[in-house]
Amino acid sequence: MNAAPLTSSIRYETLSSQAFVETDLPNCTAPVLGLEYLGMRLRSILATFLLLIPTGCGDTSRSLTSGAPSDVTEAYKSSKTQESTPDATVVSAFFQATAAKDWDRASELSKAVLIERPDDSEALFAVAEVAFHNGDASLAIELVKRACSIESYSDDQHIRQCVLAMLDQGLLYDAIEVLETVVTIRPDHHVFRRQLIDFYAMAERPEKASPHRRVLVQQRKFDLLLLMDQVAARPRELEEDTIEVLLKRNPADLRPLLAKAKRKYDQRRDAAATRMLSRIIEHNPTFAPAYALAIGTIARSGNLESVVTFAKQTPSDVNGYAMYWAALGDWAVNQSMFAHAARCYWQGTRRDANHTECWMKLKTSLQQISDGEDLTLSKMIPIVEKRATLLNSLDQKAREFSSAEVKSQKQALAIAQTLHRLGRDWECEAWAAIALTLSKDKVRSTAGFRNSVAASLRRKTPWQSTEGHPELELDLRDFPALDITRTVDQPSSLKSLTRANSSSGSAITKTGLKLNNEAHTRGLNFYGYTSKEIDQPGFMLHHTLGCGGGTLDYDLDGWSDVYFAAAGGTPKLTDSEGNSLFRNVGGTFTETTGPSGVDDRGFGQGIAIGDCNEDGFPDILVLNFGSNVLYVNQGDGTFSDQSSRWLGKQNGDSWSSSGAIADLNGDSLADIVALRYCTGDDLTTHKCFTKRINAAPSCSPMLFPAENDLFAVGRPEGGFESLDSDVALQPEIPGRGLGLVVGALDDIEGVDIFVTNDITNNHYWSKPQRADSDQILHELAMTRGLAGDALAAAQGSMGIAIGDFDQDGLFDLFVTNFADESNVLHRHRGDLFWVDDTNRFDLSSTSFRLVAFGTQMIDLDNDGQLEIVVSNGHVQILSPSGTRADYAQPFQVYKLNQQGKCQSIGSMMESEYIQSDHVGRALWTIDADRNGKPDVLVTHQTEPVALLINKSSDQHDWVEIQLVGTASSRDAIGAVVQLQYRDRTWKQPLVSGNGFQCSNERLLHFGLGDMPASDCVVTVTWPNGDVERFRLPDINRRWILIQRSANAFELN
Q1: Which residues of 1023-1050 are buried (b: 16+ CB within 10 A; e: fewer)?
Q2: Residues 869, 1013 within the same domain
Q3: What is the DSSP letter of 1038?
Q4: How confident is the model over 221-231, as pLDDT tens digits?
Q5: CA atoms of 166 and 153, how far apart (whole Å)
Q6: Which stretches make up the ASPIC/UnbV domain (predicted)?
């Protein structure tokens, strides 16, 4: 016989406004509050406690028992002092003294009272108050705790006084211990359990808080904040003042410092996190959470030796933490021990079935060891991927719900449905109950869904169902166990922890790099703003992205010209400022917009350059918020607007941001990709007004639905055919695309597309490896390790730079992100996957506070090592909280030093532009004066475009290469060039898209350093698979290499 449904024994208020039952926590009949409020509430819980009880042991104006239901003295007079015995006389005298606030006299009598009334809780509380007023806090707390124990923790007021007394002295973990005891003895006391959860949250102990959240959900005592905390994968906000107060009051216990260390870890400030964790471990050598976080920090730094050393020192219970196993797995991956890594990540999933990072990395590791013939592995991979994808989707949906002011029934229902697919039906039903109370975006099926899930719940229903979830029953114990203690021996874990963030070698102290802004003097005068009031608070989301541009040689005279997008008008209309084309005449520029016929006045965003009709002349694709425009080069210095013919029906009024022109399907005809940002009927009218600043800051893009990107293939007769109907090109999690790179990015045949999305998983489209597949592209970002950062978190990603940064013959990807998110260096490890090596190269701390947009990898001094350049600038003047943002921000130049770290050297460069702050946006390359020194173009929100001419004094030899396809598409996007010069080899891909809203000069630039003259041999792998070798007669020249021709031609 089936068990009775839960609804028969527990009161449910179905379909009415009473979605919860018998709870005195805030419930969903109350107004649903915004995420800002929810975050403030969580952060202020412990802070409120501490502010209410400023340290004051010995302060006679304060009372340990203040707020009790009755005065202690009066209570004792009526119940304990009626006996006329010597002991009663002592007790009476004691209470007379306390009533008179004669604390010295009361202290003298306290011992006698304790002897007379050792098991009398009221007496213990009274003596505790005397001890408190006489400065003996330790004794007071001991007595209060004992009194609560004698009462079997039955008196709520006494429990509160005990907890407050402990917090008064900074004894957070003692207070936690008391509350744990209370809920063990009184499991139905949800108020104290909720306080316990909040304390654990403040202490950064999610593994301790989670079981208590489960109890409250199953007891029907939940609220929205509790549910959000259970599904959130993002780092918490931290009230650092609270932690400081606790540490100041109780410096002997550094365990609360774990919360600050975790905050530094989340900020990728590993050195600071390391120092804090060292202090914690020194004072608390058995505190497992600190070890787990520490080894995660060390592993991320890339110091493999220190991981080994530190792992030897960890207490045994550290293996109960998923982060510990994730760190060991990362160590194994760095050693190419993928089977060992898989077992480590699997161990992590057993500790936490919802640890997205471990599931994602487990899937990647299994793929590395799969040869396609092992049936067991072949079955494992898709079920692991499914859970990783669902967990990632859950995080995305929770963020969308938060950004939409936690009011959308549709989004809350989507969270509930995802939880159901994960086998988490208790949470699923709770979210469905929440959804029923929300009035925005109502969905008819919500009540029915909630009822069906509720009817299936039984008291014995597990929190996490394994039925239908084979991934939770995986057994990888036959995989090799990682014996990490087998190598290096060091004296102590603390030394390795400190050493993990230090290295030998020399830092850069001066540089000859120099970039001068010569836009005005060279005639490049252009300002493509999105709004004239962009420097004032209160503007729309579409005003934030700025405008881009591209480099092209439209007249084929060998000198690179420039085309800029403009906006400033109304999205979807043609009332903006006109775009502009500038012709390069010997290093200076002349505007030719009118004669060339390229004066588009749509709301311009990005520019893509490419040869759409394969005639040898570059065309211009304008990406607008509205209808896009395709200008086809006529070969005579003019362009023809061919938007209607070539873009056709797919050219609607979407918000396009960036694009690329390249042959995607290998038919030697150019295709296009156009990224789409957000959509929605109120996208240009909805204002996110906040009373706090009496203005409307820019809305979060998560407030609006994402829209799938446009993929369109070229037809032989001309024009593009949209692939919007292709289900394979509709990803599991739609993106809000901002940047892209198209080319041969990995080490298998075919063109790949890497897309950075704003606050959404990045996408990586690649050719299917199965020969029988009829799909053009598969979305594989999660598989490739590119969906987010090392923790599997999606970020506010924008720009992309690509290059072989570590000179291993594989192409790395540098992604720029929003403030409070470090930029990320995805280093290509081979075997079709990338790893987040940001911290190893020390690229995190210098970018965390900045909003980074455009970026490129270029060799500014031609020494053979790429530099990274980044344009920064905030999206608005004021944040929603009213804090004034650093709108203008520094331009950054990173150079690799002898320590193998990337050093920000902008402050050392003699450049007026770099020494000033700017609201930077798109950034792309050009060699404006054709001297072999790569130059940079940057657009801004509050000033005209900058042309940064490379005036670096440190210069070396170089070669520039232009490719022309014949059997392949004319632009040859997807080709890879390997250049060998003496004993060094460099490798570069020819790509389109080039990042955020821009198109680079279509040249491959190689810095050669200073070496004796030698043969320069170039090997080109063309997009169609042809491989050709070319010998370059000379260096410090620009060469054209034509497919299936024997010789290189110098471009004069």
Answers
A1: bbeeeeebebeebebbbbbbbeeeebee
A2: no
A3: E
A4: 999 999 999 99
A5: 16
A6: 972-1039
36 domain-assigned:
no
CB atoms closer than 10 angstroms to residue 163:
26
Q: Residue 693 CB: number of other CB atoms within 10 A?
A: 17
Query: For residue 30, is pLDDT > 50?
Result: no
Task: Count the neighbouring beta carbons within 10 Å of the beta carbon of residue 649.
Answer: 9
Q: Are 982 and 955 within one domain?
A: no
**Which residue range is the domain that position 390 belongs to?**
6-16+354-481
Phi and psi at residue 376, to the nearest 5°? -65, -45
Query: Which residue, 810, 950, 809, is CA-closest to 869?
Result: 950
Determine the Cα–Cα distance for residues 491 and 489; give it in Å rounded to an integer: 7
Compute the distance between CA of residue 731 and CA of residue 779 in angstroms, rounded to an integer.
7
Give the alpha-carbon dihedral of 629, 969, 664, 804, to 10 degrees. -100
pTM for this one?
0.86
Point out the domain boundary residue: 915, 931, 961: 961
- Provide the number of structural domains found in the chain: 3
pLDDT digits (tens, 9 = 90+) for 1000-1022: 999 999 999 988 877 899 999 99
End-to-end Cα distance, the chain: 89
Of 603, 548, 527, the closest CA to residue 998 belongs to 548
Closest CA to 256 of 144, 174, 318: 174
| Residue 278, token pair as written in the block | 């060292």
Q: Cα(580)–Cα(462) distance, rounded to whole angstroms?
A: 64
In a domain, 787, yes or no: yes
Residue 438 located in a structural domain: yes
Distance CA 663, CA 668 (A): 6
- Please give the Cα distance from 574 to 551 (Å, whole number): 24
| DSSP category for residue 359 | H
Q: Are strands 629-633 and 639-641 parallel, antiparallel or unpaired?
A: antiparallel
Cα 639 from Cα 624, distance rounded (Å)? 18
Who contacts 700 (Cβ-Cβ below 8 Å, separation ≥6)? 403, 688, 759
SS3 assignment, position 963? strand
Tell me how far apart the alpha carbons of residues 493 and 294 are, in angstroms, rounded to a whole number: 10
Task: Check the CA dihedral 917-919-924-929 and report its sign.
Answer: negative
Q: Is the backbone of residue 899 left (phi > 0), alpha (psi -120 to 50) or beta?
A: alpha
Would strands 957-964 and 1038-1042 be described as parallel, antiparallel, or unpaired?
Answer: parallel
3 state SS of 355: coil
One-letter amino acid of 848: F
Do 584 and 709 have their domain in common?
A: yes
Q: What is the pLDDT of residues 338-382, one digit of tens each?
A: 999 999 999 999 999 999 999 999 999 998 888 767 778 889 999
Nearest to 537 by CA among 742, 690, 370: 690
- Structure confidence at residue 927 (pLDDT): 98
CB of 182 closer than 8 Å to CB of 206: no
Tell me the two tokens of residue 331: 């160590």
Tokens of 485: 């203690």
Same domain, 393 and 455: yes
Q: Which DSSP category does 698 fall into? A: P
Measured from the Cβ of residue 424, the count of other Cβ atoms closer than 10 Å reads: 26
Write the single-letter amino acid at 958.
W
Of 961, 984, 1005, the residue at which a domain comes to its end is: 961
CATH number at 878 reads 2.130.10.10
606 lies in the same domain as 738: yes
Alpha carbons 851 and 888: distance in angstroms, whole number: 10
CA atoms within a 13 Å half-sphere pointing along the CA-CB vector of 365: 28
The closest alpha carbon to 432, from 459, 466, 456, belongs to 456
d(CA 362, CA 360) in angstroms, rounded, equals: 5
Q: Do residues 440 and 521 both lie within one domain? A: no
Q: Is the domain of 630 the same as that of 702?
A: yes
In a domain, 711, yes or no: yes
Structure tokens at 837: 């090596």
Q: Do 455 and 544 share a domain, yes or no?
A: no
- For residues 720 and 647, the answer to whether their CB atoms sit within 8 Å is yes
